[in-house]
Amino acid sequence: MTTRTLVLDEDALDVLELALGGALAGLALPAGAPADTDELLLADAENTPLARLTDAGSGALDGPAPRLERLRPFAPHGGPHWDPALRLGAAAACERLAATAAGRPVLALIVDDMPTRADLDHAAAAVDGAGAGAVLLLIPVPRRGRGDGAVGAAGLVRSALAAAETLRAVRTGTGVLPVVIPWPAADGTWPVPDLPSVVATYGAPLTLRLSGLRSPAERRRIEALAGAHEAAVRAVYPEASAVEIIRAGDGAGRPGAVVLFTGLSGSGKSTIARALVEALADGGTRGVTLLDGDEVRQHLSAELGFDVASRERNVERIGWVAALVARHGGIGVAAPIAPFAVSRARVRALAEPHGPFLLVWVSTALEVCEARDRKGLYARARTGEVADFTGVSSPYEAPDDADVTIDTAVTAVDEAVETIRGHLEARLAARQRR
Question: Which candidate, 198, 157, 177, places its Cα nearest to that of 18?
Fold first, then answer.
């Protein structure tokens, strides 16, 4: 049997999650994906195989019906849009909607923009017009960020949940089920699914995009909000003063920061780092960049090995990029293993001229990390298949200068994020007062 591996980007992971959740009839491969094989492993950026595509007897994946099989769960993230109670698969949503609707129509309202007061009135009217017994409030969110200055996925979901409560209050006889679905960006590498077809798998044949019900006048009012503050400033101040006030309001000259995670493979550092990035980006005004060790290894440090010199060079490269992010007022969050004290000290030296530096040691014990072994690496290292593996055949130097220490065996992800964020915000505030 011929097996090949395809590493998926964030958009492709969204498509894969839809397919595994039963929202797609099949998984269409993008142009250029390997099809001349009878088994294709679909992996995330950490090289963890999440699913397997196998042929249907044709000996190649370009046949009519390759079989998709789930292997491992997706890497966990933080924020309300990752709540399992909201991130329902198609079958579970269908069952709940059918029970609530009791034979009446099910209406899907797509919430892909912040709901306005008028949107809520339109939603109530749409429920009445459809005679709906249940409403599927569908919130499509991408793994990719929505861009600086835009409300992120967490904020969109919180607003949609508030809209659901309002709709329940004004239409007491109608059930409302909020559901978050992964949705790739239009400019991604994989084909974007047909949204109405996806919605139909969730048991809602009637579909309306909530923001699509806005009148032209409502659209103009929303568009005008973007420049309202600047227009008000320019009406009060002369041009030279207005330019300085607007620049200060945009955050020019604010310090950036670097957060460097260190810990064994499987300690939970990547999970906490991802959740921290989402928390900082949620409502924050600084750009936040995640430099995950596995992803950096595939791109910035693809030619490096795992000997001591290569490991130190890899961490130093990560630190240099993170320091550049801080230099321009952003927050660089890096999550390599970073096993050696000397390379961690170099990152600190690179970062501190540009803003606060926070070393976070995820101190989870080796036996706990090995028991998790999500990627199967410890088992391969024990047999000698993987050489120079930290904690098994290569040393890990526990830091004595960590600013925050987290043991994920006893500390939940949300608690860890709040602890780290508190330390970081205190240091940023102190730096700005200088």
Answer: 198
For the chain, how are helix, strand and coil distributed in percent, rounded to 5?
40, 15, 40
Sheet strands side by side (includes 106-110)? 175-182, 134-141, 106-110, 206-209
Cα–Cα–Cα angle for 317, 323, 326, rounded to 5 degrees: 150
- Most distant CA pair in the chain, distance: 74
Q: Which sequence spans correspond to the domains of the chain?
A: 3-70, 80-216, 257-432
d(CA 119, CA 121): 5
| CATH number 3.40.50.620 given to 80-216 | yes
- Whether residue 146 has pLDDT greater than 70: no
Q: What are phi and psi of 55, to 5 degrees?
A: -75, 170
The token duo for 378 is 């410890």
- pLDDT value at position 174? 92
Q: Is the separation of the CB atoms in 119 and 214 below 8 Å?
A: yes
* Strand order across the beta sheet in which 39-43 lies: 3-7, 39-43, 49-54, 67-70
Which pLDDT tens digit goes with each residue over 100-128?
Answer: 998 899 999 999 999 999 999 999 999 99
* Whole-number percent of the chain with pLDDT over 70: 93
Helices (H), 108-186: 117-130, 153-170
- Is the domain covering 257-432 a CATH 3.40.50.300 domain? yes
Let me know: does 288 contact 281? Beta carbons within 8 Å: yes
Dist CA 359 CA 404 (whole Å): 7
- 14-42 pLDDT per residue, tens: 999 999 999 998 787 776 677 677 788 99
**pLDDT at residue 351 is higher than 90:** yes
Residue showing tokens 């600190």:
348
